[in-house]
Amino acid sequence: MQDQHIASAYDRDLEALQALIIKMGGMVEAAIRDAAEALTNRDTELADKVRKGDKAIDALDDKVNEEAARVIALRAPVSKDLRMILAIIRFAAAMERIGDYAKNLAKRVGTLSELRPVDGTDATLRRMARDVEIMLRDLIDAFIRRDAALAADVIARDADIDQTYNSLFREFLTHMMEDPRNITPCMHLHFIAKNTERMGDLVTNMAEQVIYLATGQRPEEDRVKKDQTPYMTAPE
Amino acid sequence: MQDQHIASAYDRDLEALQALIIKMGGMVEAAIRDAAEALTNRDTELADKVRKGDKAIDALDDKVNEEAARVIALRAPVSKDLRMILAIIRFAAAMERIGDYAKNLAKRVGTLSELRPVDGTDATLRRMARDVEIMLRDLIDAFIRRDAALAADVIARDADIDQTYNSLFREFLTHMMEDPRNITPCMHLHFIAKNTERMGDLVTNMAEQVIYLATGQRPEEDRVKKDQTPYMTAPE
């Protein structure tokens, strides 16, 4: 009976920890969505909301770390449970960083609202952000259900994000060469594109962890890094 | 007697874990140093060495994670020891990312070697990388000695890195406006500057953890983010 009580309290601890990370995921999804909308509409008020909201995401990261340490110290988890707790700590760190990227995007909205728009790139950035947001939502679902197939699908979608980023990089170079007035806005828009691409990478890392949690196997190392921009130069 | 044996094996486990992270730090320091040297001399051979060497850093990150999980499962550490192990897991993640940034820098050396140099920026980038490398070395020392004062000093130095990055951002904008042939090299050099600035941030995060380990207190939250570029536009 005593044992059962202990087991239940332990289960509740694990569930509470899982609930924290799910909540954090929802907040980060909202941050990406709001930041992208603020960018599209050059809505500085919404951008401000995203910037201020990042504090709550950071606080949740701290809370996950504290709770995880508490559960480890109190319950001495092993094997599967321990793997889950350590994965949750890493998820919190990744989500905190995605939140930072959304905040950084939001910070640039004010500056961009005073600069000329750059043809066509806004819609592409919006779509990229939307895709990453859905990847993150599916990643969280995959984690809840320990669904390795969905996690693998999330990883596969990151290649599209990388491709879009590569095209944008070339587009920005072209716009800047064509008209120097595009240089400053393109520098900021490029930051946003790169940070969005990094969000995709972070979601991919989490998805790899979910596969490990679900199957005990690390995913194949055949994923080639698709950011080709280190090798790119401007079209002649 | 039995207890003493267990305690000693436990201590050896903790020391081995600490030795792993110190080793990883040394490898990452070398990667920063070599990448910066490869950039300065447009030395594609050295750049290649950095790119290939990143696999060993990644492998060490995996090893730290496995060892940490093993020690937690086997020894059920609490309080100070547990905090140290969880900090080491985070250090490994941060160092893995610094290694990635060094690799990314190295990837651009080949492209940059085919582009025109941009006046004055190489020396500044080299100095930034050197400063980050020394920050990392001191951070590791601060961790080994649980030296909160040294860790605080590391954090203070990050403000200089941020300042240098802000100046470089403006310089790149100016060079690009002046001559469109500077656009492509400046885009790549700017990446390198931003990634170096991020390395500094990651070292700073680790230094904050060292202060927490040494004092049990989180450092004051008065550190203002010094990257001012989200608000910057080109000089008129």
UniProtKB/TrEMBL annotation, chains A, B:
Record's GO cellular component terms: cytoplasm
Residue runs in coiled coils: none
Identify the domain of life.
Answer: Bacteria
Which Gene3D superfamilies does the record match to this protein?
Phosphate transport system protein phou homolog 2, domain 2
Q: Where in the cell is it found?
A: Cytoplasm
Query: NCBIfam families in the record, alphabetically?
Result: phoU_full (TIGR02135)
> Entry's PANTHER family?
PHOSPHATE-SPECIFIC TRANSPORT SYSTEM ACCESSORY PROTEIN PHOU
Q: What does this protein do?
A: Plays a role in the regulation of phosphate uptake.
What's the name of the protein? Answer: Phosphate-specific transport system accessory protein PhoU
Species of origin? Wenxinia marina DSM 24838
